[in-house]
Amino acid sequence: MPRQTRARIDLNALRGNFRLARELAPGTHSMAVVKADGYGHGLEAVAQALTQETDCLAVATLEEAQRIRQVGLSPEVVLLEGVHEPSDWRLVVEGRFQPVLHSLHQLEGVDCVPGNGAVPVWVKCNTGMNRLGLDAEGVETMVLRIRETPGLEVAGLMTHYACADDTADAMTGEQARRMRAISREFPGLPVSAANSAAHFHGNESHFDWTRPGIMLYGGTPLIGRRGPDLDLRPVMKLESRVIAVRTLAPGETVGYGATWTAEQPTRMGIVEIGYGDGYPRHAPNGTPVAVDGCRCELIGRVSMDMIAVSLEACPQAGVGSSVELWGETVSVDEVAQLSGTISYELLTAVSPRVPRLHESGEEA
């Protein structure tokens, strides 16, 4: 029998999470962020599902944008990192993409853009993230250059919040204030600022276009909260099965480094998943997994292809029992917190050898 490790993707939950994002930011437009292979959920299927909800998607790279077009989808596609080489402009024109520009050097090669067809571009503003983006003076120069360039038009202004995951942090409000000051110099241009976390702030941080990302996939964007706490539905169920069972005697250890020792007779199951599949190697002893729907605990170090779990909480479990690593019973945010990371990393790290099974493509 083939290996049973797989990721089930609930596209109805994905669409439901997008609708929640819309409810949280009334009066705005939303571009659904599907970068990093749809946050590990499968770009093409995710894009197809979300084009039923919005006519604008956002990706990081040209390659991702091209994959959307290759499956026959025609929404607006925003390139969050813009162009990297002068030759990219030809691909932008061919694919009808909207690059985000953060530096004047990105205008090199734009002479290939036909003057009779406007290519919308966004201008990235640095309001405090200090990653990509232009200061107020640089924004003015960029907007002027774009307006002077045949074939280009300014689609809008964009910025990114640094601390929106902490609703008590004042920096989001300060960045929003700076963005309003910049945008006042360009009346009529829409502004995109709100990432997933900012949907849970006040309307002052939303502006005209929001960019929901991790929240679409059921992961929390907020410190100290989990997706279900925010009415977000898990989209990915990472699952496997028990392939062996043994009973450990007191004093016996498990796995590499002998990091877990049985204190009493312990029934243990071996599950066919490991860090080669994207399960976090640093998940500690006690990390929850669900065996036949019962919450059990990881014991011993995660191997490349296997993990060990205590079956003491699930006495009926045996070879062939189903195992949920995260999903409905175990939140991906819980596993991420225990592993010292965030759900973004866990979801995007699920390896290509794990099949994605996309389900509920249509509303029931």
UniProtKB/TrEMBL annotation:
Residues 235-359 form the Alanine racemase C-terminal domain. This is Alanine racemase. Keywords: Isomerase, Pyridoxal phosphate. Belongs to the alanine racemase family. Transmembrane segments: none annotated. Its cofactor is pyridoxal 5'-phosphate. SMART domains: Ala_racemase_C. It comes from Halospina denitrificans. Its EC number is 5.1.1.1. Catalyzes the interconversion of L-alanine and D-alanine. May also act on other amino acids. One of its GO terms (cellular component) is cytosol. The active site is at K35, Y256. It catalyses: L-alanine = D-alanine. The modification N6-(pyridoxal phosphate)lysine is found at K35.
